[in-house]
Amino acid sequence: MGIKGLTGLLLENSPNAISEHEIKTLFGRKVAIDASMSIYQFLIAVRQKDGEMLQNDAGETTSHLMGFFYRTIRIVENGIKPAYVFDGKPPELKAGVLAKRFERREEAKEGGEEAKETGTTEEMDRFSRRTVKVTREHNEECRKLLGLMGDLQAPSEAEAQCAELARGGKVYAAGSEDMDTLTFHAPILYRHLTFSEAKKQPISEINLQKALEGLDMTMSQFIDLCILLGCDYLEPIKGVGPKSALKLIREHGGLAGVVEHLREKQASKEEAAEDVGLENPGRRRSRGVSRERKKDSTYINSTSDSEERVRKGADKLSKFLNAKQQGRLDGFFTVKPKTFSKKDGPAKKADAKKETKSGKRKTETKEVGSSKKAKK
Predict the structure, then answer these.
(1) pLDDT digits over 65-94, tens only?
(2) CA triplet 40, 43, 49: central angle to 5 degrees?
(3) Integer Cα distance of 170 and 164 in angstroms
(4) Which residues, 6+ apart, have CB-to-CB distance to 296 below 8 Å?
(5) Do 19 and 205 meet the contact criterion of CB atoms below 8 Å apart?
């Protein structure tokens, strides 16, 4: 998942592209959130003290539902408007990577069984987290929970849809832990947005334009770099790390030149992956926000969570969703520096400077006069 080593490259070569914020400073922002990535995150992170996933009385997993319910309340509580986007059918190009993930999960299952007999609790927990898979049932259960708030389903990859919404100005940013969201032209990427408040992890903002400027690359070259680093569609080339990948792209201008230089004969795969990054994903219309926000007793029963706790959370959510939201100051005006045209010349600039000083002297004289009158 994501682009291997990209964050490190940006920190080293384009530090201005990454900034950190407290979640409360993002009030008034609309953010398209990669729901499928969030489900995976909650299944790994939301667990009992013994490392096992949360379950209801019927033995069904509820970690993803608990995560979505309470993290969404936190997001809305801070004045952010979330638009959750779910994965559709994965592209055929991803089949090879998905097969390898399946193999790794099977290996982790075997390791987990051995750890139960001879290993420690920490080892069992580690193998358990490696076997996590987001199923169709997980998606449907979360869609049911979020249905009252409105949601989108992407034709293919959720991060591509999030990027398209941000690119089209429908939302301010895309929210995902997946760095390859940037390859779909997302102008702003928020990471750690759905992290637990207990982690005290600030929201990381990545600005695509600043990243390109810092790397001194075009968008096409940036996509080529991400492919070379290793992404969801292709494994990285052996012996080519982040620094050497950056050097190769700069020296040879793009992926085609690098492939020719390395004498690799897999150009068709790279071109196919490049097309996935460059194409504009389609969009399906949102079902919209339900006007009647009814409390769902079925959800309460399915999660075995405290009914009073869930109802309090639902009431809190309704309160913030129905309240009139305060607008952001930067939405009303744009501060522009005073500029001079070439025709003005140095004389006019000097006059402007004199006017400023003159105005300052007049103010000082007025204040002195007022002071003397006060003494009398």
Answers:
(1) 888 888 888 998 999 998 888 877 766 666
(2) 150
(3) 9
(4) 144, 148
(5) yes
**Phi/psi of residue 173, each to 5°?**
-150, 165
Distance CA 19, CA 17 (A): 7
Pairing of strands 81-86, 30-34: parallel
Q: What is the DSSP string of 168-232?
A: TTSSSEEE-S-GGGGGGT-SEEEESTTS-GGGTPPEEEEEHHHHHHHHT--HHHHHHHHHHH--S
Kindly indicate the confidence band of residue 368, based on its pLDDT and cuts at 50, 70 and 90: very low
**Which residues, other chains included, contact 179 with Cβ-Cβ below 8 Å and sequence gap of 6+?**
2, 3, 6, 7, 189, 206, 226
Q: Mean pLDDT score of the chain, rounded to an integer? A: 74
Is residue 98 exposed (0-12), middle (13-18) or buried (19+ Cβ within 10 Å)?
exposed
Please tell me the distance from the alpha carbon of residue 310 to that of residue 270, in angstroms, as a whole number: 48
* Four-residue CA torsion sign, 147, 321, 306, 23: positive
CA separation (Å) from 147 to 76, 80, 129, 231, 296? 15, 18, 28, 31, 11
- Residue 302: partners with Cβ closer than 8 Å, 6 or more residues away: 56, 60, 62, 65, 141
Kindly report the number of other CB atoms within 10 A of residue 335's CB atom.
5
Phi (first) and psi of residue 363, to 5 degrees: -65, -45
In DSSP terms, which residues pair with 152 in a beta bridge? 85
Question: Domains (ranges, CATH) in the chain?
Answer: 23-201 (3.40.50.1010)
245 contacts: CB under 8 Å, gap ≥ 6: 5, 225, 228, 229, 236
pTM of the model: 0.66
56 backbone φψ class: left, alpha, beta (φ>0; ψ -120 to 50)? beta
Summarize pLDDT for 122-144 with one digit per residue, the tens: 665 565 556 667 778 888 888 88
